[in-house]
Write a structure and sequence with these properties.
CATH superfamily of the largest domain: RNA polymerase sigma factor, region 2, helix turn helix motif
Order of helices and strands: HHHHHHHH
Number of domains: 2
Number of helices: 8
Radius of gyration: 18 Å
Number of strands: 0
Helix content: over 70%
Shape: globular
CATH architecture of the largest domain: Orthogonal Bundle
CATH class of the largest domain: Mainly Alpha
């Protein structure tokens, strides 16, 4: 389940922000380069949020479509990475709510973590159960808390970068993380008591 950390500037040579002018000028190569740079980190975030490959692929494609449609309206100083993550976060939230209302239509094809064969079978089961309990607890967090948890703990973004994505101050990000951690601690306390027993 762990993925390599990403940063908002994916390629030191040409950052997403530097590609914006080319995208606005209609340069297909700039748009293609942005997709090549940002597709994987955006998919990783979307998969962690939605736990479903097809849904994650759909929302990432939709983000790039929306960017293409909005390209002429963006200001030249737009933080393009933050714009992409903000749009993606909102799309994930909408898709997640839709799936909860239409459970019978939402097939879960999420990949499960597979432990190395060298570990003892009981350790594999414990790891799978703990990972599943954590994913389920994160899934139950409110959207604003889930988003900051995923961006901070899995994507390793700074409070400043997260604040730009979710539209709040660094202090606001810290508060959301604190509340999310408290909720996760409460929800997971019973699970860890059971596994330790």
């Amino acid at each position: 389940m762990s993925a390599p950390p990403i940063s908002l500037v994916v390629n030191a040579e040409t950052s997403p922000d530097a590609l914006l002018a080319g995208i606005q000028a209609g340069e297909n190569q700039a748009f293609d380069q942005l997709v090549a740079q940002m597709q994987r980190p955006l998919f990783t975030f979307a998969w962690r949020y939605l736990q479903n490959n097809a849904d994650a692929e759909d929302v990432v494609v939709e983000v790039f479509v929306r960017l293409f449609q909005a390209r002429s309206r963006l200001r030249g100083d737009t933080n393009l990475s933050a714009w992409l993550y903000t749009a993606l976060s909102n799309l994930c939230h909408n898709r997640h709510r839709w799936r909860k209302r239409h459970k019978e239509a939402a097939l879960d094809d999420g990949a499960e973590f597979v432990a190395p064969a060298s570990e003892a079978p009981d350790r594999n089961v414990e790891r799978d159960e703990t990972g599943g309990a954590l994913r389920a607890a994160i899934d139950r967090l409110p959207h604003d808390q889930r988003t900051v948890v995923l961006l901070h703990h899995y994507e390793h973004l700074s409070y400043r970068d997260i604040g730009a994505i979710v539209g709040c101050s660094e202090r606001g990000v810290e508060t959301r993380l604190y509340r999310a951690r408290q909720q996760l601690k409460i929800e997971l306390a019973g699970h860890f008591r059971e596994t330790s027993a």
